Each structure stands twice: as structure tokens, then as C-alpha cells.
Amino acid sequence: MSEEKMLQGKVVVVTGAGRGIGRGIAIMAAEHGAKVVVNDLGGTEQGDGADQIPAMEVVKTIADAGGEAIANFGNVANADDAGQMIEDARSNFGSIDCIVNNAGILRDVIFHKMSEAEFDAVIAVHLKGSFNVSRAAAPYFREQQSGSFVHMTSTSGLIGNFGQANYAAAKLGIAGLSRSIALDMSRFGVRSNCISPFAWSRLIGTIPQGTDAERERVAKIQQMTPEKIAPLAVYLLANAAADITGQIFVVRNNEICLMSQPRPIRNLQASEGWTPETVASRFGPAVKSSLVPLERSGDVFCWDPV
């Protein structure tokens, strides 16, 4: 008797699954027994346009390998479209068990030149989109007392990067959203975790390559294929990860990191209370050596992944 596959019988919605990381997760989920809703609007990396071909090609790839999948072309930024993704899963496959919030766009601009439209568009797809799809699935997860969310965050938000205030705000917001979902829904047996992926994709493809150092960094990232993210995502969706929730992981090629989350690192108490002057004379000097430096993602993840 063959061993049961890790996602056998699970129904999974993967957003932004027509290309890149989402495509890799959708295909691997199907390989491990899941029935997959392949969602992709099919727009550009800036979120413009629509194209049904990428999602349909992923569905065909899954079907040709003996798996089950359907395509959905909805926009995660639209709550009605998000609800339809869940209904498509239930009407075609009978249930909904897992969500992978992967859809995203980029509108990179240095902060003082960023328009409200450029900010809003990225927040709408990444953060609001993750809320919309998760919220649509939540009542069914609560009713069946099970379910798993995997959301895509980024070290651009967790650590920082140039020219990505909109993207960083959305991605750090997703980490908070995931944590809150984990807390609110743990009583129903529902889990929520984040992955921060390092992988070459259309979005990462917008990284500047004007200097030798930038070109060298991009060459290293190009070795990190989107498919490298899928094993952790499949594991986090599966019952094998039943005791893991509210966490943030980083995947870099063959390396997986568990990330820290904000906690107090230094404190001072003044029994008489504080004035601006005593804050300046006592607190400031005391915490100076513990302040978090102004670093970018590449400064922190400065070693070559295996």
C-alpha cells in the first residue's frame, strides 16, 4: 500500500498561481494530492491588463500529470472575486481547506515621489487581497474546525529596502494580518503562517542592475528558482504542520530560516516618571547600543545561500 500524499484530499486555492512562486506551489500541491484552484488575473507585474493563458497553462500542467485543478481569473483586490474563488473551490471540489495568498504587483518608486495611486494599488493587491481571500474562506474553516493559510510576506517589509514603501508597508501588514488570524482562529483549529521568499520572478526582476554589485546580487537571486519555495508551503498547508501557526519563515534557495518577531530588548524604568530631558540623558544613551541599524534586506541576508 502506497504512503498517503501530504495534501491528499485537500482543496487548495493559490492566488497569483499562473507564474513564478504561485505556479510552483500550485503544481507541487497537486503532486502531493491536493485539488487546486489556480487563480491568476494574468496582469503585468505592475498589475495592468489581464490574460487567462498563464492560469490555464498551469491547470493543463497539473492535469497532464494526473492531478486535478481548475482556473479562476478573479482579482484578489475585489472582495466579490475573492468570494468566487472560494465558491469555485467548493462547487467543483466539495470543500475548501487551504489558502495560499501569493498574488502581488510592484510599483517601485522612491518615497518622496510616490503617488497615492502607486501606494494604493500595491496595498490593494497584497494586503487587501490577502484579507479578502482569507476572509472569504474563514467561515468555512470555522465551521469545519480546520484550515491553513500561507501568506507571502517579504524582507522588504520585515527588514527594509529602497524605493518600496508601498510594497514594504503591504508585506509587513501581511505579517500582522497573519499573526492576528492565527490568534483569532486558533480556537477553531485554523493555522496561519507567512513565507518570505527569495526567488527570481517578474517582481524581483525589477531590481536595479546598474552597478557590478547589483548585477552580482541579481545573478545570485536568479539561481533561486520559484520552485524552491513550494516544499515549505506544502508542508505548512499539511496536517504534518498542525502545531505551527503565527510564524514567519524565509526561504533562500535550499535554506529555510525561522524569523524573529518584535519583542522588547531593552527597558528602563524611572520611579519618578520621565521628562524629555531625562529621556535624553538616561534612556537615549542606555539603548543606543541596542538600536536596530538602518539596513536593507541584502545587508542582513549577506551570506550566499546553499
TrEMBL record:
Name of a matching Pfam family: adh_short
Entry-linked InterPro entries: KR_dom, NAD(P)-bd_dom_sf, Peroxisomal_Beta-Oxidation, Sc_DH/Rdtase_CS, SDR_fam
Domain Ketoreductase: 10-206
Similarity remark: Belongs to the short-chain dehydrogenases/reductases (SDR) family.
Listed name of the protein: SDR family oxidoreductase
